[in-house]
Write a structure and sequence with these properties.
The chain is α+β, with helices and mostly antiparallel strands. The protein has 12 helices and 22 strands. The chain is 28% helix and 25% strand. Bound molecules: adenosine monophosphate and glycine.
Amino acid sequence: MVIGGGAREHALVWKLIQSPKVAEVYVAPGNGGIELIAHNLAISPVNIEALAEAARQYKIDLTVVGPEMPLTLGIVDLFQSRGLAIFGPRGAAALIESSKVFAKELMQKYGLPSARGRVFTSSAAAKEYIQSQPPPIVIKADGLAAGKGTIVATSRKQATEAVAEIMERQIFGSAGDKVIIDEYLSGREVSLLAFTDGKTVAGMVPVCDYKRAFDGDVGPNTGGMGSYSPPGFFGPHQIELARKNILKPAVSAMAQEGEPYQGVLYAGLMLTPNGVKTLEFNARFGDPETQVALPRLKTDLVDILMAAIDGTLDQMEILWSEECFVGVVIASAGYPGDYKTGFPITGLDRLDKEITVFHAGTKAQGGKIYTDGGRVLTVVAGGKTIAEARAKVYSQLSAIRFEGGYYRQDIAQQG
Ligand code: AMP
Ligand code: GLY
């Protein structure tokens, strides 16, 4: 069973059914594309009690969690208490994502390279500190805020306003009871994820993700508008350093803290002139990172997930292909703000065979596919080079149509 209904989950299902060990996949809640290859279950990812009941009812052998919310709510603790196999960190380990203060204090305690940052529990103290900092100044709400909790303020005035919004007007609710004020890091961002059983860290390939809505990295922050792998600027040397100095120490730190971390650990990194530094950790697969990483995975995903659960990842060799992949997200007009849904999507049946379309906000009705969310599709192609993969994806995108659909033209333009 896969929990979630985005393009990340579609990619997970697509990969899982390639395994000879997988007979059937259930997805809660799934989407219009997933429905074509698996069984959708109309259960919300946050209804963890109903999910545990479904796992029992459908005799699920393995559950994989996509989004952060069920992890934070303790879905792994619940499943484990009922003897149900599940891949992901327990609630107390998922704090590495659900509390930025927890993550920052962990990094400081164990000496992981990260932006210099200070934690504040009062807005007065935070505002006073801002007066001593050179802009840009980065303000982060402690808790989960649907990807909107980080503000990169270009002036002290804007930083002060962000603190007032988060801590006084509580725009993110109790997620804003604490804030971190971070030193601004400049450089290029990369997502480096790893499978871990709590001891062994088995790295995935690095991926670049595009968070801003519009070309040239302008516009509002989104869940991610595209991705590619591998990034040319983040080679084997950087990967090795990041694994040695960030991913491995983070996993041993969690074990030392008495909360061994099992699942996918996602490090959001900045390659700065002073080396690789951590921006954040997530407790799950990335979206849209997964859509371009999994096509490169040569090892059976089920074997990896089971080894992570059983604590035997040290006995596995995980192989990745050299092929390059580019993924472009098509979103509804207005996303990440308000948008309308229910528009028919055309052209999906006319695509080149080399194109893979992972659905996100879609639903199937009467043999047709309709839009049903903000991010609608991730369209992926591979090639010998990023340029080749990119050309393939972009040659097909205009064939996919729905009212108001938009996508970035510059994904993977700068390798
Ligand atoms: P986060 O919520 O920590 O994932 O941050 C969201 C985005 O804000 C990151 O992807 C970066 O682009 C940016 N960001 C976060 N922290 C910093 C920092 N210390 N310096 C510069 N940019 C940052
Ligand atoms: N692509 C960013 C994330 O999954 O958090």
